[in-house]
Amino acid sequence: MIKVLIVDDSPVSRDLLEHLLRADPEIEVIGFAGSGEEAIAALSLKRPDVITMDVHMPGLDGFQTTHRIMTEHPLPVIIVTASLDPIADSANFRALEAGALAILLKPPGLGHPDHLRAAAELVQTVKLMSEVRVVRRSTRPAVSLQPPRVKTPERFKVVAIGASTGGPVVVQSILASLPGDFPVPLLVVQHMAEGFISGFAEWLAGSCALRVKVGEQGERLTPGVAYVAPGGTHLELDAMARINLTAGQPGQLLCPSVTQLFHSVAERFGRQAVGVLLSGMGSDGARGLKELRDKGALTIAQDEESCVVYGMPGEAVKLQAAQHVLPPESIIAMLQAISK
Fold first, then answer.
1. Which one is catalytic: 164, 257, 264, 306?
2. Known active-site residue 191
3. Where do the domains of the chain lie, and which CATH numbers do they carry?
4. Catalytic one among 67, 191, 234, 263?
5. pLDDT in the model for residue 146
6. What is the phi/psi pair of residue 136, to 5°?
7. Which ranges of the chain have pLDDT less than 70?
């Protein structure tokens, strides 16, 4: 049984989440907390496997509570929020910075056309996150590492980045470390619940010198700009290297797809591309990174020690798709070096 602690100051929301989670025979709701302080106090008594966390609560909010959990009692935390407004988005993504693994919208009530889909997403996310190994957050500053030597026979023209669970904070750290005059455009696919991508792009933009925006159909790529794939839409490039947004196929689980981005970049730029595959569940991006390497591109996978989930990079390593397997600090150093 997966033991879940529900943290939310709204009795109505707690009842709804309990009802949805208890409907699955593999999940047991072991308790509730109406504030961050109650959540911290419950950890040693209840010993949950997963915590669902509201952001706006009296006293310790979701960000502060998640920070405390990840430094004192590391556990998988899922942010379950009722709002998509910019202020709430800021708090949601600060919770990711603190160590939360995923963000979901609270499922609507019975009778809403989106109820069943959202309920299924909640249950599936709780099950997946219960398998994630989380570690105590260190307060020590990251050590700056020297990048491996890289032969650059041609000037690179694009960087493509793919990430899923555990990826948002790494994407942020990479983009925040690059200069505003970075000489090539960047394309980013981040698996995230629909509705949060615009807030994700704004959060990234607020922490880095690069311009960050959600990609739009027909846009020409501009150096120093990071284009984030819209939710529920594949980001590809056409023959003129303009953004081409395409709908996912019926039944396709991952949209946007990292592999489809990498495939498109490999076809358009080949050896003039850089592919970076970061933390995430599953195998999306592994075959695409192999295709990039086969076309002569520079390919990088995040290393196992620094990943929240080593699924996607691990599959790429198995396929020998990554020329370099590195922690985020070295990925940053390498991108800084090849841009000079």
1. 164
2. yes
3. 2-129 (3.40.50.2300), 158-338 (3.40.50.180)
4. 191
5. 57
6. -65, 130
7. 83-89, 135-154, 250-252
